[in-house]
Amino acid sequence: MELKVTSVSKTYKNGVRALDNVSLTIPLGMYGLLGPNGAGKTTLMRTLATLQEPDGGSIHLGGIDVLKQKDEVRRCLGYLPQEFGVYPRISAEDMLSHLALLKGVTNSRERKELVAAMLRRCNLYDVRKKALTGFSGGMRQRFGIAQALIGSPRLLIVDEPTAGLDPGERNRFYNLLAEVGEQVIVILSTHIVEDVMDLCTKMAIIHEGKVLYEGDPQTAISQLSGRIWKRSIEKSELAQYEQSHQVVSNKLVGGRPFLHVFSPQSPGDGFLPTEPDLEDVFFTKIRNWN
Amino acid sequence: MLWHIVWFEIRYWLRSYMLWIFFLLIALAIFLAVGTDYVTVGFALSNTYHNAPYVIENYYAIMGLLTLLMATAFVNSAAIRDFHFNTSQIVFSTRLKKRDFLLGRFAGATLVSVIPMLGVSLGILLAKYMPWVDPERWGAVYWTAHLKSIYVFAIPNALFMAALLFAVAVLLRNEIVSFAAALFVTVGYIVGQALTQDIRHEKAAAILDPFGIRTFDMFTKYWTVGEKNSVSAGLSGLLLWNRLLWLGVALAIFAFAYWRFDFSEKRSRRAAIQPESQTAVAPGAAAIPAAGLHDSPWAKLIASLRIHMFGMLRSTFFIVIMIAALANCIPSIALGANEGYGVQTLPVTYWIVDIIRGTLYLFIVIVITYYAGILVWKDRDERMDEIVDAAPTPEWISYVSRIATLIVMVMLVQCVALLSGVIVQAWHHYHRFQFGLYADELLVRDLSLFIFLAVLAFFIHTLAPNKYVGYFAYIAYLVFAAFAWRPLNVATLMVQFPARPNVIYSDFFRDLPYRLAWNWFTLYWLFFSALLTVAAVMFWPRGKQDRWRDRRRVARGRFRRGWQFAAALSLIAFVATGSWIYYNTKILHPLPGPLDAERRQADYEKTYKRFEKQPQPRVRNVKYEIDIFPQQRNMKMRGQEVIYNPLSTPLQEVHFSLDRNYDVDVSIPGAALDKDDKRLAYRIYKFTSPLQPGENRTMQFTVTSKNRGFENELSSTDIMPNGSFFNNTVAPVIGYDPGRQLDDAVKRRKYGLKEVDLMPALERNCTEDCRDHYLLGHSDWVEVESTISTSPTQIAIAPGWLVREWQENGRRYFQYKLDHPSLNFYSFLSADYQVARENWNGIEFEVYYLKEHPWNVPRMMNSMKESFAYYTKNFGPYAHKEARIIEFPRVASFAQAFPGTMPYSERIGFIANINKPDDIDFVTYVVAHEMAHQWWAHQVVGAYMEGATFLSESLAQYSALMVMEKQYGRDMMRKFLSYEMDNYLRSRGRETMKERPLLTVEANQGYIHYRKASVVLYYLKEMIGEDAVNRALRKVIQEYAYQPPPYPTSYVLEDALREQTPPQLQYLIKDLFDDITVFSNRTLDAKAEKRNDGKYEVSIQVEAHKYKADPQGNETEIPVNDYIDIGAFAKPAPGKQYGDTLYRQRVHIAQTSSKFTFVTDKLPDKAGIDPFALLIDRVPDDNTKPVEMVSSTARRF
User: A19, A50, A80, A87: which to substitute to probe chain B, counting the most B Cβ within 10 Å?
Assistant: First the structure.
């Protein structure tokens, strides 16, 4: 089974073109959707999750026409939205049980076990009786993960899932994803490059509604090999370097700016060659440097 | 720092929607209460201006109680917010001082609690400018009253509530406990009100009322209209003391809370959610069990229903509003159950249902309005939408689970009210629980309306681009539906979703005459609702569609075969029922617009008023043949009416006013139809051979009712499946009938009519002007014979004695004949009656009643006989062979005397509840009154002139009082008299015209010719003696009973009474009848001392003032020179209202202050001046005072 997105476009009422002729083929396994804020990731995710109508194009999940057979899609969908709230005055356990039921777990004994197991996995079992509204950001995010995973989805869409999680929680979540991700399609949208690097076998980079790259991360990195150069500079020199070079990134290392620049040949100026990473791919792609 | 906290608190709430919703709710309730006639908040508006200072202050006082629960939300939050949100450690670790914190929060919460009450001002100020209000009922804006209300009521009440709730909150730190406390105070207050309702504890209750409601009542008890319109109560007298007392209490409570408050958290272990423990189960340790997935929509529906219901049940707003609703409803049931329509009645089910409707439904409509928005927007507001919408749940589950939640909640609240009603009925030992009727009225008739409203609200919110537009559109629709159709002159309910025809339940016919129309309209709106529901489900918001185009596309996708089928079916059914309703209501029956009827009335007056004085033939006798068909609700009346010319010149024309509900056919020998105005139901016949003086002619008429199918609203209640009741006025009425004119002053102005005519001025020696009696109708004393038939299970009744009864063609026939010529004013009835019959002194005494209402029949029978005995002995012979009381359905609520028959509404005397010995026996009283009319009105009737009702209504009141006196004793008369006096004094404060003396009373001034007359005539009887009064009355009867014109005027009665009054009391005639005389008598001091012989020497110091009032109620003091009683009473026995009379003496009082000393045998409890309240006294309650015992030894030293 694979998810095939063909020429999907979407323009919002305010004129923003969120998706521009997007075509993707998403196989089983973890799929990373990388893009800066406002790239159109969330629009794409919502469209895949049957929550938004595109202006044109088609989406197929195996034999299911996602845009027409919404209910078929929802039956096998797990979705963690980028932002979500919860009903007031309701406990984590009750809410999760309710959502499990909406997903079709109607046998109450099964549901009870499933909810309990899921709460344990997401480390919420101790607070299962507490009102969700009192949860911290991280706890709430874990609840979101739990509800997305419940009911064994075959298509799992997670939008910025690690926001608000501490590193330990993040790792645990990735392990969880990796565990289920072998048999199902997992689409992970993020603007954090390491997430994709660590987890995904396939990825796409989108920016301003367009797909800039689709493929596996390693290929993308190897394409860039030999074209990324590094050096550290003084703060005062930064503006000057940005003028004269195609600066991919600048980070502070030991309090001094440390630059990666893109250049097919050695840019001189004391720049040394470096192995590109996915972040370099990401930034060069969205700046359209080749 | 203090001010910073106060200001922070206020700003915090100013930003919250709850404050503004409460504010707008109160504004809306008051707006509706003063701006429309449909809503009552606390008290019914009288004839004062709707924005009178009195009204403003009264609403502010009442709002103190109603905002208690709202204030709980603010105060509670202010007090314990920091514990609740776990910010206490941050807040309390600052340099904040306890004083600043507590005082600041308290002051802030108090001020915020005042804000919702300001809604009163907004509502009243806005309502004044609404186009539909009658400007006559509105005075200038009276800002002082608003201001005074705020500092006399709003702020002190808020302070008291805040102090109390703040104390509870900071000491217990539990939201539920706070609400429980508020509820406890509300209910306790209302119950306390009931317990202290007794007039004797009035003053104590007024002082002790924490909200000042009773205080204000007491303060303004006998204010005249003028005072209510122009004076506002400030901080003085009783009000000042009350406010000071409760301010003190508030401060004491706050001081206590302040003393006990502690910053530390030990009291509240509101478990904060701890971060996960380190020993959490390691990820991956537990396998996720597999679970089968099923579509099962019903399980999903039930689960959704459950989650929404719990959400609603746990929401503070819902709890507050429902507690407020039930706090308004349940005490009303408990207190009002046995006070139906102003008198002590049995708590019959339809009355309880009426109370529930009046007190609960405004809140239910508010809940529907508010929660429709909340529920439709719930997922989006809570940002849960993406998760829920991505679940494989069909849209209809979301829709149905939410709307069902709302409906179930409403139903639960109704059931609580229903249950309270049943409990209250049982409490009053009323065991006819009509569960079927409860269910029918509340859970079918009313709940279906709520469902329609909910469907509409859901539909609007589904399409609305945001919640606020949704609210606005829905409320705008409700306002439009309530107010727009009348001005638009649209009568058909077919466009007024969700309106249906009115239904009146009666034990006679249940809802039968109304049911057909109601059922069809309900079906019609049901199908309409089905269409709205399909549309709402198709457009149900799901996901993040920001464009209409997308939503339409999604809707098209959802609109699959099943839905198409449902929609088509609903549409066809809607159109089909609509067509059938249209055929019945619009084609089978005329359907005039609401304005058409009044326009017709105005045109009737404009066109034909000029004929009012034109001479007409008079009625000599009438023979009726009437066939009533109860099941078909039809009737056919054939009549032969002999008319004659009473004048000395020939008559050329005869005019008739007809009843529009009937087809009328008239034929008069020697006369031809000259004009037939069908629209105004007026006909003119020209005599081809003029009617000569004294000449008789027999006209024939046929009157046929034309009921078929069903109507938009039932237009006539004359003929019912059981309980038909109609007057002879359904037959053609000779001449112009002023009773058909518009009488509402505003409408008259609107149609350019001048003010309605008052009765002609009283003349002393009148002949020509007294040719008509005040019931009019171109007739004097007529003879009547009737043959009346009905269905075999019913008894039909016409005036006179029953000549014979027989069955023919499966119908039951009765023939009646009037024993004595009588006023041309009588009724016909038919129903399935039980009859209580007694022959006594040659007269048949009969009570015709429903088998469900046997309770007061013996009492009625007894009263008829007692009345008969007293009246025949003292006034003159009774003219008929029968006296009958006949029950009729509650489509009207009066008792009325016709010759020998007295129809009496099922909803007054028959369900009266007179079980406690102290209850005023209204049944006996009313029957005695109606019986008295057999002399006063049906034998002696006043000329059409001012004071006419003095001869009928006033004398009927006096006669009834005498019957009561014979039955209950002279000492007990004060019970009736104080009721009458209270009514008179309160009513004169609401007079819109001028208050008249009794002698020239207008026919519509009931509070004078009934209430004042009772007191005044009874006082006269006390002064000149029963025999003297009755001699005078006998003389009036002898001279005027059944005499041809000219008819007597009120002078005849006054002169007869004057003749019987001894010279030294002649001043009374002027005081009582010619003037408006008011006393202010009171006892300043009452002491008693036990004598050696065991008797008591009582000394009282009293004050007497006498005033003459002008028609506007302005009073001038005049010297007192009157005979007034003094007296003393013993302590009432337990459970009794009055103690034995120990002393009663009439003394002459000619100065303001007097002292009296007298001796009683037993220990006196109360003593004073005019102890039986015989004189009209502005404050009757201070006439006596509790007697203070002084020991004789103490006095010696």
Answer: A87
Q: Is the dihedral of CA B114, B115, B119, B122 positive or negative?
A: positive
Q: Which of B1135, B956, B940 is nearest to B1047 (CA)?
A: B940
CA–CA separation, B738 and B735 (whole Å)? 9
Amino acid letter for position A269:
D
Check: CB of residue B409 under 8 Å from CB of residue B372: no
B921-969 pLDDT per residue, tens: 889 999 999 999 999 999 999 999 999 999 999 999 999 999 999 998 8
**For residues A42 and B543, what is the distance between their CA atoms, to the nearest angstrom?**
13
Written as one string, the DSSP assignment of B732-750 is: PEES--GGGS---HHHHHH
State the residue for tokens 């749940």: B393
For residue A113 the two structure tokens come to: 């076990």
Residue B653 banded pLDDT, cuts 50, 70, 90? very high
> Strand B822-823 and strand B882-888: pairing?
unpaired
Nearest Cα residue in chain A from B295? A104
End-to-end CA distance of chain B: 64
Note which residues in 228-287 of chain B have CB less than 8 A from chain A.
272-277, 280-281, 283-287
Q: How many residues does chain A have?
A: 290
B382–A88 CB contact, under 8 Å: yes
B1188, with CB counted inside 10 A (0-12, 13-18, 19+), is exposed
Residue B861 three-state SS? helix
Residue of A nearest to B546 (CA): A13
Both tokens assigned to B1015: 């007191």
Calculate how close chain A gets to B301, using CA atoms only, in Å.
9
Peptide bond into B498 cis (omega under 30): yes
CB B157 within 8 A of CB B211: yes
| Separation of alpha carbons B1098 and B1161, rounded Å | 10
Per-residue confidence band for B191, with pLDDT thresholds at 50, 70 and 90: low
Contact indicator for B650, B692 with CB cutoff of 8 Å: yes
CB B356 within 8 A of CB B417: yes
d(CA B480, CA B611): 42
How many angstroms separate the first and last alpha carbons of chain A?
Answer: 33
Length of chain B: 1197
Nearest CA to B116 among B166, B177, B158? B158
pLDDT at A29 over 50: yes
State the Rg of chain B over Cα.
35
Q: Report the candidate in A230, A225, A226 with the shortest Cα–Cα distance to residue A259.
A: A230
List chain B residues with CB under 8 Å of A52: 543-545, 550
- The ipTM of this complex is 0.92
The β-bridge relationship of strands A77-80 and A246-253 is: unpaired
Segment B717-743, tens digit of pLDDT: 999 999 999 999 999 999 999 889 988
Secondary structure letter of residue B762 according to DSSP:
P
| Alpha-carbon span B283 to B72, nearest angstrom | 46
Do the Cβ atoms of A24 and A39 come closer than 8 Å?
no
DSSP A181-248: TTTSEEEEEES-HHHHHHH-SEEEEEETTEEEEEE-HHHHHHHTTT-EEEEE--GGGHHHHHHHSEEE
Report d(CA B1098, CA B1128) in Å as an integer. Answer: 8
Angle at B790 between CA B785 and CA B792, to 5 degrees: 130
Structure tokens at B243: 């406010």
Residue B370, φ and ψ in degrees, nearest 5? -70, -50
Beta-carbon separation of B307 and A90 below 8 A: yes
Neighbours of B583 (CB within 10 A): 11
Assigned token pair, B5: 């906290």
Nearest CA in chain B to A53: B550
Residue B946 backbone dihedrals phi, psi, to 5 degrees: -50, 145
